[in-house]
Amino acid sequence: MNVERHNHAASTLTNGSILVTGGSNGTTFLKSAELYNPSTGTWTTTGNMNVARRDNTASTVSNGLVLVAGGYNGYFHNSAELYNPSTGTWTTTPNMSIAREYHTASTLANGKILVTGGDNSGSLNSAELY
Question: Does residue 55 lie in a domain region?
């Protein structure tokens, strides 16, 4: 990768590339994102997220966009944003009802994303749909 990072998220794009988002490098929370091309074994940078975050989720939506939700960068996030692989840009989308990190995001058969659990100064038992 171009930037060392941990506690990041990764998602497979419809073209087979891997989008890696956010994380931390030990001293800084990251808003950068990178693309891995498994055919060539190369990494390239792409547009930065609007919010630096670690412990977020990244889920490919049925329309090919990627939903990045939640995370932490000194405080817990309820924000979410969408990555457009065609343009390499990020667009904010409505916030989740609860800020969370360490949560999971699962793509359902109907194409919706189910965000569950996580932490926000204590374990969460809530869930929400995107």
Answer: yes
